[in-house]
Specification:
Order of helices and strands: EHEHEEEHEEHEHEHEEHEHEHEH
Number of domains: 2
CATH class of the largest domain: Alpha Beta
Strand order of the largest sheet: 5-4-3-2-1-12-13-14
Number of helices: 10
Oligomer: single chain
Number of strands: 14
CATH architecture of the largest domain: 3-Layer(aba) Sandwich
CATH topology of the largest domain: Rossmann fold
Length: 283
């Protein structure tokens, strides 16, 4: 299938990719062929921006294990930074009062979320009885604080609220209750099973993070190729000039795709090289 015509004048300037289920597999591994493809793109002058719902430390763990580093958008678009030097190019917290409304939406559904905050040694704050998957909480334990969530959302910047790895029917009421106070997405959880519900600030998405990176780097946002597999990738795929979906993606994502690639465990991501044209020296 030919690459759709790009808006603007020229070829792809930026590749934006989801992480879990797209670039990395259920064991959090990135296939060597995918790593080689990313390095070839970057060597050819096409940056690769990782856009993930993960918090920063856990995104770094997966990427560094694969030998990759570079720009990333984490927490579904709330924070963007260069992993090579820590420079922040994008940062959006909930406006005053909105985080409180989102916390109330979780509470109305009988859930106590993780609250992602801006502290050097704390990634997330939970209440006395968090609803998130025990495995998720155990893994995050070194960077978790147990506090009064109502006080936290009133007193400091909040990037996201989430419950990880629980049955979708338990989480779906929050989608209806959040309203304009936040941007919510419900995705299947590759690591813990069940689904993950994450609510970020209003109008924040992986696409808004990609636009911030383009503004920072002087790139044309009409020349983006995006790759994803879940509901939190839809805005990204809809905004990109070229949309690629993993074969195991949700039906809504597959319906939006211009191209379908193989799963991450088989190195399917490497097919992106052919979609942008192989840079000089690429294998």
């Amino acid at each position: 299938m030919p690459v759709p015509e790009l808006r603007g004048d020229g070829a792809v300037q930026l590749v934006v990719t989801d992480l879990d289920g797209t670039l990395s597999d259920a064991a959090e591994r990135i296939h060597p062929a995918s790593v080689r493809a990313i390095r070839a793109l970057e060597a050819g002058g096409i940056p690769v921006l990782v856009a993930t719902g993960r918090r920063l430390r856990m995104a770094c763990a997966v990427l560094e294990a694969g030998g990759l580093t570079g720009p990333a958008v984490v927490l579904d678009g709330a924070l963007g930074l260069d992993l090579r030097d820590g420079r922040v190019f994008h940062q959006v917290a909930f406006p005053p009062g909105a985080a409180r409304q989102v916390l109330a939406a979780f509470a109305a559904a009988g859930l106590s979320p993780c609250v992602y905050v801006d502290r050097p040694d704390v990634d997330l704050v939970v209440g006395d009885h968090p609803s998130t998957h025990p495995g998720h909480l155990a893994r995050a334990r070194p960077w978790v604080a147990v506090e009064d969530l109502e006080r936290v959302v009133e007193a400091e910047p909040v990037y996201a609220l989430a419950v990880v790895g629980r049955p979708a029917p338990l989480l779906e009421p929050v989608l209806r209750l959040v309203g304009p106070a936040g941007s919510a997405s419900l995705v299947g959880d590759l690591i813990y099973g069940g689904s993950t519900l994450q609510v970020r600030p209003p109008k924040v998405s992986k696409w808004s993070g990609a636009l911030a990176f383009c503004a920072d780097q002087g790139l044309d946002p009409d020349r983006i190729l995006a790759v994803g597999d879940g509901a939190n990738d839809l805005e990204l795929l809809e905004g990109a000039a070229v949309a690629c979906a993993v074969a195991t993606a949700t039906p809504a994502v597959l319906a939006r795709a211009d191209h379908v690639i193989g799963p991450p465990a088989s190195g399917g991501w490497a097919a992106v090289l052919d979609m942008v044209g192989r840079p000089a020296g690429a294998p």
